[in-house]
Amino acid sequence: MAIDYTDRIPNNVELASSRSLQRALEAWQPEFLNWWKDLGPTDFQASEVYLRTAISVDAKGWANYGYVQMPEYRWGIFLAEQQADRTIGFGDEMGNAAWQQVPGEHRSTLRRLIVTQGDTEPASVEQQRLLGHSAPSLYDLRNLFQINVEEGRHLWAMVYLLQAYFGRDGREEAEGLLMRRSGSSDNPRILATFNEPITDWLSLFMFTFFTDRDGKFQLKAFAESAFDPLARTCKFMLTEEAHHMFVGDTGIQRVVRRTLEVMEELRTDDPEALRRAGAIDLPTIQRYLNFWFSSSLDLFGADASSNAAAYFAAGLKGRPDEEKYADHVMRDALYDLEVPDGNRVRIESMPYRNAINEVVRGSYVEDCLKGLQRWNKWIERAGHAVRLRLPSTRFRRGIGSWANLPVDLDGNVITQTAYDANVASWLPSEDDRAFIKSLMQPVYEPGKMASWIAPPETGIKGRPVDYEYVRFA
Length: 473
Ligand SMILES: [Fe+2]
Ligand SMILES: [Fe+2]
What we know:
This protein is mainly α and 473 residues long. It has a single domain, classed as Ribonucleotide Reductase, subunit A, CATH 1.10.620. It is 48% helix and 6% strand. The protein is built from 13 helices and 5 strands. The strands form 2 sheets. Strands 2-1-5 form a 3-stranded antiparallel sheet. Strands 3-4 form a two-stranded antiparallel ribbon. It is globular. The protein starts with a helix and ends with a strand. Bound molecules: fe (ii) ion (2 copies). The site of one fe (ii) ion (FE2) has 5 residues, from helix 6 and helix 7. The site of one fe (ii) ion has 5 residues, from helix 6 and helix 7.
């Protein structure tokens, strides 16, 4: 049966005019749908969800709202508008024309970078697939599904690049993206964080705040790429990514606000008393934060990395917001990296380009801090002295010079014995997880919220908070 792909797949890449690309997508689309039905959100496929769909890239068309059954979502292919005569903005090829095709010498590296980014998109859908059964409200349930369909669209975005620019290898990689499974022991997703299960909503909010924010920085780095179709694809993805981080930012804020309300009502900060009242005590929130922040830091890669230097030199991957830097070449510049030396810190001076992962990680940490400052304002206004904080970037690292060292929350190297004795107070314990799990009861009545979270300040697209964002089948 012939499918009108121009209609079925909204796009601005002239899909109708490319027979070979259409054929490739014709083969891939049913596999994608099978994957979605098997590994997308469980049991809500027939529900009507009030979703945003991008049908064009301009301000009017990129956010169309209406009720959709998720398998009917129109996963489109959109690239930001092409900029005429765009030149490469950084690295050794700075000033040369941006590439409209993949240069042979960068083919396998670019493919690997695109596959690694692409792999995170379906991975997160798989990680979150059970959460619909414990949504704290219909508003939250709708936001979860919005994120899920958009991560599906991001997969389409990467698969488009693979199919359109990487020939047979690209087609094989597109299939591989549907074969790996988050958390699988024999065919896991590529990056560790994307194999962590997300079975509760506190983790979901942490994930969308910290891990989707890593995504934002990766996309921004690719938005600078000399490979123009990749740059334009990622630019458009960033518009959608903003909502995912909004869900995390406001989600944690609402959890904190609810906790503060209960602290006020009960006139106590005793975790047990707060838990009995169905609220999440601040120390538990801090432990979840420690876990997801440290896990997300590893996604930026090793602090000293010759690969990162090579990507930058070749123009494959820049620094996020490259225009904010004065020097876009950084050929002879040095960077002072803090590396461990026994139980002390030593400064190692190295070529700046080799430290780009660390530079980007630094900008990410600053971005995360803004969220914490907003949450802490609520705590401060409620008259409490405690503050949520980010642990040191050396804490619980799995990659780079600080990997697998016993480091405390302040970044000090301590003895393994001291680490083992304290780690249970730094990271979610079995008891914490069991408590959080006990709170995960669905609330599906429009406008009602679970006991552990405050209502959002506004609804979606001007709708009231008690709007029926999901209509169950
Ligand atoms: Fe994404
Ligand atoms: Fe995302």
